[in-house]
Prior knowledge:
This protein is mainly alpha-helical. Helix content is 56%, strand content 0%. The model has no long low-confidence stretch (mean pLDDT 84).
Amino acid sequence: MSIQPLNVSPRSAKQRSALANGSRPFLVTVPGSTEAARHYKSVLDEVEAERGGRAAMSVTQREAARAYAGLAVELAKLHAAMAGGQNVDLEALGQIGDRMDRQARRMGSPKAPEREGVRERYARRRP
């Protein structure tokens, strides 16, 4: 089942919040130089790109992508702690993985990349 995004907002991007129009990844100002903020933005960008870009996603899919990115940051922190020899809560590790899976299902399957046709491959080989 594919969910098609609806452009129901009659307001322009300038009239919507920075979070809603995509100009900021967070509701409040967060220093983008932190490792966590960079990882969050990186995961969010990848997830959105896999699904055809932010404009191709519904509000539910975008919110699921944000939740997924936040969970990915927390999972990375737990993995770093584990790699550093610290004891981590394995139950929390499993719960984060389960919740990431749930958010991934809410987002839907990634779109398959466009395949290059025979004509395009042949044209590319010709000098």
